[in-house]
C-alpha cells in the first residue's frame, strides 16, 4: 500500500514540477535559439507574431489593366460555378474572378477592400458567393490550416477586421493569448513542429535536396486533386442557435463590406449557392435557417445590396453536382447561363 502511495506522490510531484518549470524554460529557450524577432500580425486578437505570405499587390494592377465590368469573389463555390468565358460572352464585358479555395468572409472582405476598391475600378456589379451563414461567421476558415490565404489580401494593419475577430473570441482565448505573449508557447511550438516534421525525412535521406523533393512529392500526392470524391459537403447544416442572425451580424465583416461598397459606389450581389440537393428535391432547410436567410436578405437589401438565393431553383439539379456542394466542370456553363437569366436586369 505504501509503495503505491509513494509512487502516486512522486508522480504528482513530477507533474507539479513540470508545470512550474516549463513556463520558465520556454522563454529562455526561445531567447537562445530564436533567429530573429517575428513581425507583428495584423490579427493580434487571434495570433502572435509570425511569418506571413506576401500581399498580392499584383491583383490591384491586374484589375486596373482589365477594367472588368463584373467581379466575382468567393471560394470554390464560386470557382466551380461561374464560367468566366461564358459570362463575358453573355454580358459583353470583362469578368475578373478573385477566388480563393477554402476561404471565408474575412478573405472576401479584404479582397473587396484591398483589391477591388483600392484599384479604383468601377465594375457594374461585384458578386460574392457564399453558403448559409458564412457571411456572418468571421471565424469560418480562420483557423491555422487556412489562415495563410488571408495574408494575400491583408495589409500590415487590419484594425477593423481585428476588432471584429476580437468580439467573436471568448475569454478563454484571450487568456491563451496572454499566456502565449508572456511565455512564447506558440513560437516554441512552431520551432518544435518544424523539427519533428523534418525528422523522418532526415533519418531516411541525408541529402537536403532529396528531402525537399520528398516533401514536395508528398504534398502533391496528398493534394485535393488526389482525394476521393465524396457526396458529403465539407460543412454541414446546423440547427437552432447556429442561425442567430441578429446576434451574429454586428460581430461580422458584413457591415464593413456593405459600408465600404457604398462609399466606393459599388453594387454588391450576394449569391447564396444551393447546397447539394437530393435526387428529387432541394436540400432540406430548417425553420431557423429559413428565418436566418430572410433576415439576411432584408438586412443587405436595406443597405443597397442585391441578394440572390439559388436554393429551390428547379434548374439546379443533382446531375450538376460532383463533390459535396461543388458543381461538376460540365455544369459550369449551364449554371452561368441560368444565373445570367435570373439576374438579367442587373447584367444590363
Beta-strand residue percentage: 5-15%
**CATH level 1 name of the largest domain:** Alpha Beta
Largest sheet: 5 strands, parallel
Question: End-to-end distance, in Å?
Answer: 86 Å
What's the number of domains?
Answer: 2
Spatial extent as radius of gyration:
24 Å
Q: Strands of the largest sheet, in order across it? A: 2-1-3-4-5
Structural class: alpha/beta
**CATH topology-level fold name of the largest domain:** Rossmann fold
Share of helix among residues?
40-55%
Order of helices and strands: HHEHHEHEHHHHHHHEHEH
Q: What's the overall geometry?
A: globular
Low-confidence stretches: 223-228
Count of discrete alpha- or pi-helical segments spanning 4 or more residues: 14
Name of the CATH homologous superfamily of the largest domain:
SGNH hydrolase
**What's the count of strands?**
5
Please identify, by name, the CATH architecture of the largest domain.
3-Layer(aba) Sandwich
Overall mean pLDDT score? 83
Can you describe what's shown?
This protein is an alpha/beta fold. It folds into 2 domains: 2-50 and 179-225, no CATH class; 58-171 and 244-346, SGNH hydrolase (Rossmann fold). The protein has 14 helices and 5 strands. Strand 4 (268-272), helix 13 (287-302) and strand 5 (306-309) form a beta-alpha-beta unit. Helix 5 (105-119) packs parallel to helix 12. The longest helix is centred in the N-terminal third of the chain and has 32 residues, at 2-33. The chain is globular, with a radius of gyration of 24 Å.
Topology (elements, then pairings):
Elements lengths: L1 H32 L24 H9 L3 E5 L1 H4 L4 H8 L3 E5 L5 H15 L5 E6 L17 H4 L7 H10 L2 H13 L1 H20 L3 H14 L23 H4 L5 H11 L3 E5 L14 H16 L3 E4 L22 H11 L6
Parallel strand pairs: 1-2, 1-3, 3-4, 4-5
Helix pairs in contact: 2-5, 4-14, 5-12
Amino acid at each position: 500500500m505504501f509503495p503505491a502511495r509513494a509512487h502516486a506522490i512522486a508522480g504528482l510531484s513530477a507533474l507539479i514540477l513540470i508545470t512550474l518549470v516549463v513556463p520558465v524554460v520556454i522563454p529562455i529557450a526561445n531567447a537562445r535559439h530564436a533567429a530573429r524577432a517575428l513581425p507583428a500580425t495584423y490579427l493580434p486578437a487571434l495570433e502572435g507574431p509570425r511569418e506571413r505570405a506576401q500581399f498580392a499587390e499584383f491583383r490591384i494592377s491586374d484589375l486596373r489593366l482589365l477594367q472588368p465590368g463584373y467581379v466575382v469573389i468567393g471560394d470554390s463555390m464560386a470557382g466551380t460555378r461561374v464560367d468566366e468565358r461564358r459570362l463575358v460572352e453573355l454580358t459583353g464585358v470583362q469578368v475578373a474572378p478573385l477566388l480563393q479555395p477554402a476561404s471565408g468572409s474575412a478573405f472576401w472582405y479584404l479582397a473587396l477592400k484591398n483589391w477591388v476598391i483600392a484599384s479604383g475600378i468601377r465594375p457594374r456589379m461585384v458578386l460574392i458567393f457564399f453558403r448559409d451563414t458564412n457571411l456572418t461567421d468571421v471565424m469560418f476558415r480562420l483557423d491555422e490550416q487556412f489562415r495563410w490565404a488571408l495574408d494575400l489580401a491583408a495589409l500590415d494593419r487590419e484594425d477593423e477586421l481585428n476588432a471584429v475577430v476580437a468580439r467573436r473570441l471568448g475569454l478563454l482565448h484571450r487568456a491563451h493569448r496572454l499566456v502565449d505573449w508572456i511565455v512564447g508557447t506558440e513560437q516554441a511550438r512552431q520551432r518544435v513542429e518544424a523539427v519533428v516534421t523534418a525528422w523522418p525525412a532526415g533519418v531516411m535521406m541525408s541529402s537536403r535536396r532529396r528531402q525537399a523533393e520528398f516533401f514536395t512529392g508528398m504534398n502533391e500526392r496528398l493534394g485535393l486533386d488526389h482525394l476521393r470524391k465524396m457526396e458529403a459537403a465539407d460543412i454541414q447544416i446546423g440547427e437552432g442557435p447556429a442561425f442567430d442572425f441578429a446576434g451574429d451580424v454586428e460581430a461580422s465583416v458584413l457591415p464593413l463590406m456593405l459600408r465600404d461598397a457604398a462609399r466606393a459606389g459599388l453594387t454588391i450581389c450576394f449569391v447564396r449557392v444551393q447546397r447539394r440537393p437530393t435526387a428529387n428535391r432541394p436540400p432540406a432547410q430548417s425553420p431557423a435557417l429559413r428565418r436566418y436567410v430572410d433576415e439576411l436578405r432584408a438586412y443587405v437589401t436595406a443597405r443597397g445590396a442585391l441578394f440572390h438565393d439559388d436554393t429551390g431553383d428547379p434548374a439546379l439539379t443533382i446531375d450538376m453536382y460532383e463533390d459535396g456542394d461543388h458543381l461538376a466542370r460540365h455544369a459550369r456553363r449551364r449554371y452561368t447561363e441560368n444565373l445570367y437569366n435570373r439576374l438579367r436586369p442587373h447584367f444590363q
